[in-house]
Amino acid sequence: MQAQNLDALLAQMWKDYSHMNPQVRKIYNSLLEQEDKVINDHIALRTYNDPRVNIEVLKKPFIEGGYKEKGEYEFKAKKLYAKHFEHLDPLMPKIFISELKLEEFSPALNQTVRELLDQIPEGMNERYDFVNIGRPWKLDYSTYLKLLEESEYAGWMAAHGFRPNHFTVFVNHLKSIHSLIGMNDYIKRLDFKLNTSGGEIKGSKDVLLEQSSTLADTVEVEFTDGKHAIPACYYEFAYRYPTEEGKLYSGFVAQSADKIFESTNRGQ
Ligand code: OOG
Ligand code: NI
């Protein structure tokens, strides 16, 4: 069933993401044993900056649903650019969309990505649920490995396509956990591994945002030459501090995000 409105789309995104990544289901269900509900701080999406699929394309259902563009971020070393979007309702998840700057990569990578994007059926990128369509192209395992050599992000995107890369627990709204350290201890007690790049906690009270994340689940993905187990999606945890006006800070911190991206890298 194709989602027709934003609530339905967000629900479908959560359903597909939590089915694909068993750790997400386990952590979420465990939290629900002591919480009435778990609020999402944000949802993150990835893409390539080709005009057929760039941020301007992926942002559409959110803009139609009342979201506004808020911040932008540059990631020089990873060759990424990102924007975040907010809804007037502070309980609606913020949306973080990044895109790979193709022009900064080799002709070979550009050629490969073009061949993937050329496979997207005519008009599919205009579908309301395109952001959650999955992988609309065929891919063989050696092409995936080749992309990874230049960019972990390029490889992840080729293998998984359009789908949330992570949802994020808004730790401030939990009743049973009151800090990010407490959240991390909880995750470790459940026996899940945290991304330790840049330390278990990225950011601090000084930058008004603390974040941590699991290492992505390894899942079996279908390639044209068979199934292979590769990193899929992760779960993130965010704790926000109030700004001088007294409202919780709602932006992102590029230096922290830079490390969070690595939650889908192989071999940490
Ligand atoms: C996004 C990483 C950045 C954050 O909250 O800073 C991020 C990604 O892995 O695609 O989500
Ligand atoms: Ni995030």
From TrEMBL:
Superkingdom of this protein's organism: Bacteria
Alphabetically ordered keywords of this record: Dioxygenase, Iron, Oxidoreductase
CC cofactor: Fe(2+)
InterPro entries: HGLS
CDD domains listed in its UniProt record: VOC_like
One annotated GO molecular function: dioxygenase activity
EC annotation from Swiss-Prot or TrEMBL: 1.13.11.93
Name of the featured protein: 2-oxoadipate dioxygenase/decarboxylase
The UniProt record lists the keyword Iron: yes
Record bears the keyword rRNA-binding: no
Family label: Belongs to the 2-oxoadipate dioxygenase/decarboxylase family.
Pfam families cross-referenced by the UniProt entry: HGLS (PF07063)
